[in-house]
Amino acid sequence: MAFDSRNRFQKFSLISIVIGIGLMSAVRAETVSSVIEVSGVAERLVRPDLAHLEITIDVRDEKLDTARREAGTKTVSVLRNLKELGINDDAIDSGSLTVQPEFAWDAKSGARRLQGYLVTRAIRVRLLDLDKLGAILERAVKLGANQIAPPRFALQDESALRQELLTEATRNARQNAAAIARGLDAKLGAALRVDAIETDQPTFASPVMLRASAAPVEDAAASESYRPGDITLRVSVKASFALN
Q: What pLDDT, on a 0 to 100 scale, did the predictor assign at position 33?
């Protein structure tokens, strides 16, 4: 009799466990089906107000001292011009100097022969007044700069603008979730998770490239020929919402 009671108890416990697992599975399935994932986007057309410039002066000569001296003279001229245009010292970095020996291959002897030296001076400028962009680049060419990288345009307060766009993108995600909920005849619940999607840094259209010739150009005309274009700054989020 005792054995029969234990047997019935074990069967009852087993049935209870099976029912419990079934209920847990049903609850889990209901929870999964009651969550929707959406994305939100916000974008804005912006005009850059900052440019990073890199002006390079290359000088080649058989003698290192001659090349270094000429590169230094041209660098001083470019720096003096930047100050004349009102660029502050804290916006200029001219501390880069590179010396590279150059060799030529002698086919007869099968050895390389020192041909001379390449001395490079680089000047980096953080420019806030973009109206001076053309004058800086054109004058730099006339003063001896022979390499100028395309200006890298940016925003002085990009982080603040991105925060605004994140707010707008989150609202857009909620609006999208609400639209889906209405289509399902359901009520939109609380946000369960929101993630900002990493986006590339904005790339601004570069202005007209430098002419190959260093012929004299009026500063006013030069300024008009270097204009950065607008770009669209875009921010996206992914969000999960509960459905009630």
A: 57
Give dist(CA 88, CA 151) in Å, integer.
Answer: 18
pLDDT, tens digit (0-9, with 9 covering 90-100), for 168-215: 999 999 999 999 999 999 999 999 999 998 765 665 544 434 433 444
Parse the chain into domains and list their residue ranges.
33-47+157-244, 50-154
- The b-or-e profile of 164-186 (16+ CB within 10 A means b, else e) is ebbebbbebbbebbeeebeeeee
Under 8 Å between Cβ of 54 and 195: no
Q: What is the CATH number of domain 33-47+157-244?
A: 3.30.110.170
What pTM was estimated for this model as a whole? 0.67
User: How does the average pLDDT of the chain come out, rounded?
Assistant: 82
Number of neighbouring beta carbons within 10 Å of residue 8 = 10
